[in-house]
Specification:
This protein has helices at about 10-20, 75-85, 110, 130-140, 160-175, 210-220, 255-265, 280-285, 315-330, and strands spanning about 1-5, 30-35, 40-45, 50, 55, 65-70, 90, 120-125, 145-155, 225-235, 240-250, 265-270, 290-295, 305-310. With about 325 residues, it is α/β, with parallel strands linked by helices. It starts with a strand and ends with a helix. It binds NADP nicotinamide-adenine-dinucleotide phosphate (NAP). NADP nicotinamide-adenine-dinucleotide phosphate binds next to helix 1, strand 2, helix 2, helix 5 and helix 9.
Length: about 325
Amino acid sequence: MKVAIVGVSGAVGQEFLRVLDERNFPVDELVIFGSARSAGSVYEFRGKQITVKELKHNDDFKGIDIAFASAGAGTSKAFAETITKYGAVMIDNSSAFRMDDDVPLVVPEVNAEDAKIRPRGIIANPNCSTIQMVVALQPLEEISHIKRIHVSTYQSASGAGAAAMAELKHQHEQIIKGEEPTVEKFAYQLAFNVIPHIDVFLENGYTKEEMKMHNETRKIMHSDVDVSATCVRVPALRAHSEAVWIETERPISVEEALTALKKAEGVIVQDKPTEKIYPMPLFVASKDPVYVGRVRKDIANPNGLSFWCVGDQIKKGAALNAVQIAEYLIKEKAL
Ligand SMILES: NC(=O)c1ccc[n+]([C@@H]2O[C@H](COP(=O)([O-])OP(=O)(O)OC[C@H]3O[C@@H](n4cnc5c(N)ncnc54)[C@H](OP(=O)(O)O)[C@@H]3O)[C@@H](O)[C@H]2O)c1
């Protein structure tokens, strides 16, 4: 397998290096790309030093089987043709193509088969908050159709990239030293704060991130479900948390939900609240599964169920999900 990573210096790009190695992904040759900023830097992969190439409109993708792209939507749009023109399958982490009808949007635990139909050679990796939510929702959907979802997210700093994570750490250092914290990556100081604002505001009062959770959930789950989200940035470094309320066609008991979640692929149930066992981002960072806890009946809705879920958004929310898509295609001989 000849594999490319576009955006290797970034938070997701670095995770690709770790995940490909960790999962023993069959890499015969790895080619890594960045902008002029990181071109020439060297990263190690399986004991080999690899130099970052500058992403350009040339023939560098000739012979590449799979290109994992995580360099932002603008770069993905500008370079999709260059990346795919010789037959490479582009698995894109950005929002560039997610809602395009001719681009599958895939979470392997939910709709792996969609990855086989990709007229443009592009498969989109969903938004990180959506990925972890649908992994937890799918086993419940199989019990009774989910009609409505309310969700509040608690999204970590690294969701905004490597520089944003560095800014949060730096803000803490500055505050402890009595200095004015530097604010560049977020709308306000994130240290000792929460910010109810991720991505840009739209005319309906929701943000783009919140509408992604509505639109992408419907596309991945092939569902008419309505999703009302409030996306909030919190000063966790890594892993996103979500409080989720669902309304199903028929009531689901807590026991039924827990049984289904315990059997579900990619889900770990941590739900013994009296023993203080529930998922938290500090302990989920760098882990593969989506962790679910606090499963309970929604006392405000007879057909409602509420739960808390936490997932590492750089891993399952980005690099791992993309690598799992590639693994599925290899297994199905559908590359
Ligand atoms: N962070 C997350 O949790 C997360 C989760 C899901 C999806 N995503 C998505 O994944 C993408 C990357 O996110 P990130 O968090 O890894 O961001 P990041 O840490 O800011 O990294 C951005 C990467 O993009 C590269 N890049 C930017 N412009 C480029 C260009 N013109 N040509 C080639 N490479 C270019 C940068 O390379 P240089 O250093 O060379 O400029 C860097 O490697 C985004 O689309 C983001 O929405 C992120």
